[in-house]
Amino acid sequence: MPAIGRIKDTMEAPPIIRIDHVDKIFTTVAQEKIQALSDISLSIADGEFVTIVGPSGCGKSTLLKILAGLQRATSGVVELDGTPVSAPRRDIGIVFQNPVLFPWRTILENVLLPAEVQGRPMAAARARARELLAMVGLADFEKKYPMELSGGMQQRAAITRALVNDPRILLMDEPFGALDAMTREQMNLELQRIWGESRKTVVLITHSIPEAVFLADRVIVLSARPGRIARIIKVDIPRPRSMAVLSDPAFARVCGEIRKLLYGVEDEAGAAGGGLS
Amino acid sequence: MSASDTRRIETPVRKRPSRLSILIRQRPEIVIAPIGLVLFIIGWEWSVVWLKVPTYILPTPSQIGTALMKGLNAGWDDRGGYWLHTRVTLSQILLGFVAGSGAGLILGTVISQFRLLEATLRIYLVAIQSLPKIALAPIIVLWFGFGLTSKVVIIALLTFFPLLVTSLAGFRAVDRERLELMRALGAGPWTVFWKVRVPSALPYIFAGLEMASVFSIVGAVVGEFVGAQLGLGTLILSMTAQMDMSGTFSVFIILSVIGIGMHSILKAVQRRVLFWTDAEATAEPPPEG
Ligand SMILES: Nc1ncnc2c1ncn2[C@@H]1O[C@H](COP(=O)(O)OP(=O)(O)OP(=O)(O)O)[C@@H](O)[C@H]1O
Ligand SMILES: [Mg+2]
């Protein structure tokens, strides 16, 4: 077996994120109970890249918000660095499913929001923000307002905002959903590079199976609601990965496996076919 | 490219039409509206003359104009002229507007920060809001006398509720995802208040100010009708009693100018503060005809 990226065995190092028997039950306005997550247990090692796929409404966003300390698990434990999560933490960067930019702030001001809120040195933050904006192709747009940008550009700005404080853990909820195929591939490569250089732990939700496989050390496949872990799939493709792996037979095999878990059918052609979206 | 060049929107270097003609093409109403007004005035003038409508029923625009000039040509402190009364009414309006809308804004802002308080008070606020507060004008004049105070109180009462209600609505309408983002960043309540809640509530608050500015003029005139020695309202009363319709209409023009002035100032401030709402299409009233 080839090496599994950087993580030889996730059980070796103490996990940075530990999710233990987590359930989440929502009570709707009509007092109905909706179980969004059921018995999720998962450990994520420091520096690991984990992607989550699953049918719409299976609780992916909910799981991410629980990790971010924005929602509480109904039962079970979530620990970061060995301490239970009770409130949001400063060493986490989060990208929501929507960009959530403030229309009264320029792109640069939006990107600087986390630094401002957390009282970081602004000169350094500004330099970092400019660097990141250039990286995602928004260098010429820092003085523009969100309404002057396309949806995909707004989402790239939101990604930049999540990175500006250089968080240890990066939580991303379908960050590339609004991007065209080509930008998406570029962003995937860029994210892989940032992750490789900064040794962040990344948890990324996606609807795209190829994207999940391309980026991940491990892909978490969730079942339909209530979301439970259907399978955890290790991706043994060496890094850094280029877009060439999309036509790799090993890559196609993993995609096919996930597709089978999600849809119950194996679609060879689809699995091998180009694009990440 | 120099730094200043990049700011500009790039336009092809063809023969550019003048800014005026671009403006006219984009907003033809700025030409049509004044032409319409002129035609309306001419039509009014002619029909009054042709139909031989008596002046004490409806004066011609030129008679109104003459009355206006006469009133404005009087001295600064002349009780028979317009300046003294305009000054009195305007100061009542401004004092009442600032006091009433300021108090409404502050109270609305405070109440909206406490869920239980807001929920408890809402039913009363709605009830009070639907009361015709202008009906209290005689009582207020009885309490506070014929001077400035009673008018300021009436206006403050009328402008208080629009701001209270709109600021409550504005602070309640803050986008949940924006709050969630701030929470994820670990922002404290004070930071969230200034960086998210206030900007989100501003479009509503400006809508409230707009309403309040209209109410403040109504309040001043009604207050002066009920009991006052000075002010444009008293002028209207005495002129109407003397069948001086041209005079009454000319005072009406002054009141309109005050109204338009307040509206324009508010709009100018709003354009600066709320530049970002253009795309969000918030609280923008339909264009006036
Ligand atoms: N605040 C809430 N109150 C009640 N039910 C909720 C709430 N938030 C989410 N849910 C329910 O929980 C389930 C999971 O929602 P979640 O947003 O986590 O799904 P998801 O996997 O992210 O879906 P998608 O891929 O469409 O984004 C859904 O059925 C949803 O209806
Ligand atoms: Mg989701």
How many domains is the backbone of chain A divided into?
2
- Mass-distribution shape of chain B: flat
User: How far do the termini of chain B sit from each other?
Assistant: 44 Å
Tell me, rounded to a whole number, the average pLDDT of chain B: 88
User: N- to C-terminal separation of chain A?
Assistant: 29 Å
Q: Strand pairing plus helix content of chain B: what structural class?
A: mainly alpha
What percent of the residues of chain A sit in helical stretches (DSSP H or I)?
A: 25-40%
Structure description:
The complex is a heterodimer of chains A (277) and B (289). In chain A, 33% of the residues lie in helices and 23% in strands. Chain A is of the alpha/beta class. Chain A has 2 domains: 174 residues, P-loop containing nucleotide triphosphate hydrolases (Rossmann fold, 3-Layer(aba) Sandwich), CATH 3.40.50.300; 66 residues, no CATH class. In chain A, strand 1 and strand 2 form a beta hairpin. Chain A is globular and about 45 Å long. Chain B has 289 residues and is mainly α. In chain B, helix 5 packs antiparallel against helix 10 and helix 5 packs across helix 11. The longest helix of chain B is centred in the C-terminal third of the chain and has 38 residues. The chains are: A alpha/beta (277), B mainly alpha (289). Chains A and B meet through helix 2 of A and helix 9, helix 10 and helix 13 of B. Adenosine-5'-triphosphate binds next to strand 2 and helix 1 of chain A. Magnesium ion binds next to helix 1 of chain A.
